[in-house]
Amino acid sequence: MNKIQEVKERADIVRVAEYFGIHKKQCCPFHKEKTPSFSISQSKQIFKCFGCGEGGDCITLVSKILNINAYESAKQINNILCLGINFGQQTSNYELNKYKQVQQAKEQFEIWHNRTLQILCNYLHNLNKIEKLQEGNIIEYYIDLLIFGTEEDWLWFKKTEERWCKKVEQELRRKIA
Ligand SMILES: [Zn+2]
Q1: pLDDT in the model for residue 171
Q2: Which residues surround ligand 1, an ion (CB under 5 A)?
Q3: 158: CA distance to ligand 1 center in Å?
Q4: What is this structure's pTM?
Q5: 87: pLDDT strictly greater than 90
Q6: How far is the CA of 33 from the centre of ligand 1 (A)?
Q7: Any idea which fold 3-80 has?
């Protein structure tokens, strides 16, 4: 497995943050503020600041704190938490590229997710105008799935209903100018 990925999967972001004196809810370490908008989700293993928009996993967190790349960051976390992962052989460039590919795919997926949710909500609110009231239940079901579902649900939805979503979008554009 990719070393960066391995560190990410085995490290607990809360423990990593604690090492740097950062708590689960506090003022953001990456921008100046008076009321806390920075928080860490242990269940999702991510951090997010609603003030400046910074966010990511434990690798990103340490990269930002120490101003180092993802590979160096993984190495640091490996040492801090004594994960005992051997960083000996593979080249850092190979690891970095792999990691970047995964991150990019994730970002793209998130963009798709937000956008689809917006389209479906928009469609739901305009069912009357589009004369598609009979589709209300299914649209509501999909919106629920996109909000409360798991990542597997979303992957399934993207795989099976992406074309249908495109149609919905086109229909919206045609009728609601
Ligand atoms: Zn911030």
Answers
A1: 87
A2: 28, 30-31, 49, 51-52
A3: 31
A4: 0.57
A5: no
A6: 8
A7: DNA Primase; Chain A (3.90.580)
